[in-house]
UniProtKB/TrEMBL annotation, chain A:
Domain of life according to the entry: Bacteria
SUPFAM superfamilies: PhoU-like (SSF109755)
Keyword list, A-Z: Coiled coil
Pfam families: PhoU_div
Coiled-coil annotated residue ranges, if any: 34-61
Record carries keyword Nucleotide-binding: no
Protein known as: TIGR00153 family protein
TrEMBL record, chain B:
Subcellular location per the Swiss-Prot or TrEMBL entry: Membrane
Record protein name field: Inorganic phosphate transporter
InterPro entries the record matches: Phos_transporter (IPR001204)
An example Gene Ontology CC term for this record: membrane
A GO MF label: phosphate transmembrane transporter activity
Keywords: Membrane, Transmembrane, Transmembrane helix, Transport
Length: 211, 308
């Protein structure tokens, strides 16, 4: 394999790992916030910021490598599209943390568990995406299975988003609080939406590898 | 030296147009850079011309009896027709142009024309796109079978496409030189002006001149017409074109690489169950066939008459 391609693949792996870490820290931020550990949540959120910015730098490095001629042009654009889609997942994680740290939405105790669950599930959609990228380097045909897993997870999260939104609006909370919580739920679910987008890009890469 | 200039002119036209058939698809699909493709094409066109180019001399020179003046006019007329047809955007064939003009000059001089050979050549031309289509159809199925099993990931795809692309370009350029060099200087060999070796050398160099000076734009326009195929299909089409050229070189008949590649692309399309060649393209080939022959025949006749 050409050196440039090897470097691009290593960087993309690193980028995925960084995004995964970013999501992990986001879950920690949420858990700490929901458990009223404000200082801890703030520290985790700072980690998310740092990791997101590192992921950004990696994305730029990957683009530079592709500009230098890594991969066939057929794959180059799709590869970058995939990396950019993954980067948006990290962006969403940062955006979620920003929302809770800046706006401090008041989550009622009876909804806390549901919030924890939806955060966990939304982030879980990233796992098959990461595995799918691994198969890009092993066997194109196995990617579609992972893409399907991401889609299933995203659909589950969508359902949970609907249920939670319904619960928020059927509660006795103030309208402003309801709207803020709805925003927060939507932001959390954006992560699985972005994972689904990235999975679609990965699917394009796999399809291009077939005849 | 002046008397063989039309051969250089025709070779230049061939190099600037037909080289695009050989390395257009790999260059536009990014398998290889234009510069590297040109270097390889230059080396292998010349090698093909020198090592196997003389196999088609007997066919080109055997159409009619040629003097130096007749060879000069026939080659000049063929070169002018190739230029005109390229300018009009037809998939022109130098083989059809030179054979047409040789028939024209033979008719003017009222010397014997070997119609038996002419019919054989025309049959071969008919089989050029058909043969290329059949070969590419079979190759697509055969190589596709192995490809699906062996090329399973991104790195292997890149390596296989790049390496096979390089090899196929070399093979195709070699066969372009081998099959088509007789078009440029074959008439002069028959007229006794050039030795076969000198003719292959000079013809090969003139094709290279066309590749070096004028092929870039043609490569990118022709290549893009073919390269919407994925790299695998593009390479199968190119390999089939090269094999078609190779087979016809062995029986000594110069053919059209443009028509061979269109046939090969159609064959790939058939194998994929997709339409890769439009009816317009097929119609253009048919019209260009008739027009090239008739125009070359007519122009050679008129030029010969004017300079009698």
């Amino acid at each position: 394999m050409r050196k440039q391609e090897e470097e691009s693949i290593d960087l993309a792996k690193e980028h995925l790992a960084k995004t995964e870490l970013c999501l992990k820290e986001m879950v920690n931020t949420f858990n700490a916030y929901l458990e009223n550990k404000g200082k801890e949540a703030e520290n985790f959120a700072l980690q998310v910021d740092r990791l997101e910015s590192e992921a950004d730098n990696l994305r730029r490095e990957i683009a530079k490598g592709l500009f230098g001629g890594a991969f066939l042009p057929l794959f180059r654009e799709s590869f970058l599209n995939f990396v950019e889609a993954v980067d948006k997942i990290a962006d969403e994680a940062e955006s979620c943390c920003d929302l809770i740290m800046l706006e401090s939405p008041d989550v009622p105790d009876d909804l806390k568990l549901s919030f924890k669950e939806i955060v966990r599930d939304s982030v879980l959609s990233f796992q098959p995406l990461k595995e799918g990228f691994g198969y890009l380097l092993k066997d194109f045909s196995l990617i579609l299975e992972q893409v399907q897993k991401v889609n299933v997870k995203e659909a589950e999260v969508d359902q949970k988003e609907e249920d939670l939104t319904r619960r928020i609006f059927s509660s006795n909370l103030e309208l402003a609080q309801k709207i803020l919580l709805k925003q927060l739920v939507a932001k959390i679910c954006d992560i699985s939406d972005r994972a689904e987008d990235a999975a679609d890009r990965l699917e394009v890469l796999a399809i291009k590898g077939r005849i | 030296m002046f008397s063989i200039l039309p051969g250089v002119y025709l070779g230049w036209g061939l190099g600037s147009n037909d080289a695009a058939n050989v390395f257009g698809p790999p260059v536009t699909s990014g398998l290889i850079s234009y510069r590297r493709a040109v270097v390889l094409a230059v080396i292998f066109i010349l090698l093909g011309a020198i090592l196997e180019g003389k196999k088609c001399f007997a066919t080109v020179g055997g159409i009619t009896v040629l003097s130096l003046r007749a060879a000069f006019i026939a080659t000049l007329a063929a070169a002018m027709v190739v230029n005109l047809m390229s300018w009009l955007g037809f998939p022109v064939s130098t083989s059809q142009a030179i054979i047409g003009s040789l028939v024209g000059i033979g008719l003017l001089n009222q010397v014997s024309i070997c119609y038996h050979k002419l019919i054989q050549i025309i049959i071969c031309w008919l089989f050029t796109p058909l043969g290329a289509a059949v070969i590419s159809y079979l190759f697509f199925l055969l190589f596709g079978y192995f490809y699906q099993r062996k090329v399973k990931n991104l790195q292997r795809f890149n390596s296989v496409a790049r390496i096979s692309g390089l090899l196929i370009i070399c093979y195709a350029a070699y066969n372009l030189g081998a099959n088509n060099v007789a078009n440029t200087t074959g008439a002069f060999v028959a007229a006794g002006v050039l030795s076969p070796f000198l003719a292959t050398l000079l013809g090969g160099m003139s094709i290279i001149l066309g590749v070096l000076t004028y092929s870039k734009n043609v490569v990118f326009t022709v290549g893009k017409k073919i390269a919407p195929l994925d790299p695998f299909s593009g390479l199968v089409a190119l390999l089939s074109t090269a094999i078609t050229l190779h087979l016809f070189t062995q029986i000594g008949v110069p053919i059209s690489s443009s028509q061979a590649i269109v046939g090969a692309v159609a064959g790939v399309g058939l194998a994929r169950g997709a339409k890769t060649v439009s009816k317009t393209t097929l119609f253009l080939i048919f019209v260009s066939w008739i027009l090239t022959l008739l125009l070359a025949l007519g122009l050679a006749y008129i030029l010969g008459f004017l300079f009698k």
